[in-house]
Design brief:
By secondary structure, this protein is mostly helical. The chain contains 4 helices and no strands. It comes from Pseudomonas typographi.
Amino acid sequence: MSRRSVADLTDVTQPQNVHGWERAGSLAAGVVLVGKGVARGGLLGLLQVAIGGAALARGYTGYSKTKDIFEKGRQDLDAIRARIEGAGAELQSLKDSAVAATETTTVIGEDPLAPK
């Protein structure tokens, strides 16, 4: 996992995947969690400060690695679904073609593949 520097956090050319109310909510939640964590102190307070800091960074930069991973997974699943649907349509087309071909065909004589 690569670390992002402070310069990366302030770079506005970085891709953004958190927008609007989601971004504002991340900032607000980050401020609240950092404040509560500092007030609480101890190990749980430190955990709150860390989570709040991550939420603040997410809101400030407009980028979430976790959201990026989930979106990539969603895109992969959508691509797989499209391929499966395409294969299903192709199979249906082949079946329809085979049925149409056998409806107009008459077999005369012995079928060498028929059971005896």
